[in-house]
Amino acid sequence: MTILRVLGSAAGGGFPQWNCNCRNCDGVRRGTVRATPRTQSSIALGDGQHNWLVVNASPDILAQLRSSPALQPARTPRDTGIVGVVLMDAQIDHVTGLLMLREHRQALPVYASAAVISDLSTAFPLTRMLSHYCGLDTRALALDGTAFSVPPLDDVALTAIPLESKAPPYSPSRNARRVGDNIGLRIVDRKSGRRAFYAPGLARVEPHVLDEMGAADVVLVDGTCWRNDEMLALGFSTKTAADMGHLAQSGPGGMIDVLDQLPATRKVLIHINNTNPILDEDSPQRRELEAHGIEVAYDGMEISL
Ligand code: MLT
Ligand code: MN
Ligand code: ZN
Q1: CB under 6 Å to ligand 1: residues?
Q2: In which pathway does it act (predicted)?
């Protein structure tokens, strides 16, 4: 059995965000909004035998590991359950945690697309920086549908699914998309046959992505914004959710409409921005999700595959 554990369910900035006084951030600090703080975007896949694959390494990874004792099996004086890291993109909220893992005892296996490895070797040179610490053992992911496994998690078949979202603002390909700037991950437990699809950044549900979502028992997808103009309306950004590579939940063709078409038994929103009203457990938007059978991920949520 594969365990999918949500290490961090918030988008970049976390919840509450350090400099934000939106209704949610201010309300959760003061206790006037019923909501739970969340760390930045990451999940881990476990085999039930102390081995964990981290998918996206968030800047909050040290706090996430402290609240996930299973990832520290303590078999030797220096130990970790982490056997590798898979990256969905090169966004700061998904890669900065690699810096926090620099005390690793050997080169850390990192699986990412060639486009992401290129950003992490040039514009944000983590591979060079970390070569002076543990080192990163980067492996370029096939984008042609070939499955891979990360040893010793041999019962978990993973497939990178290229999809449309956005490369990070610092990337030379922010406005000139390369295939592989963003991927989703098909996760199949070879024993149970159960399948999940994880895509924390998803701008547009292309036909092949809809097929992926339709074939999954569990979908964990982009829950960044409720409205496309959410950040604009608050005066926090000049960009829409779509400009930032995220499909909003509400409105025609929004994520709720997409999820309504799927037979999946668990439909979960993840990578939730702190401005999103679904974080308020008493909000009408949260009630609307419940009416559609859609869950909101929280830190520590676990799903068995
Ligand atoms: C995004 O997905 O757009 C990011 O969360 C932005 C960021 O990390 O600042
Ligand atoms: Mn993000
Ligand atoms: Zn906020």
Answers
A1: 11-12, 91-93, 201, 244-245
A2: Cofactor biosynthesis; pyrroloquinoline quinone biosynthesis
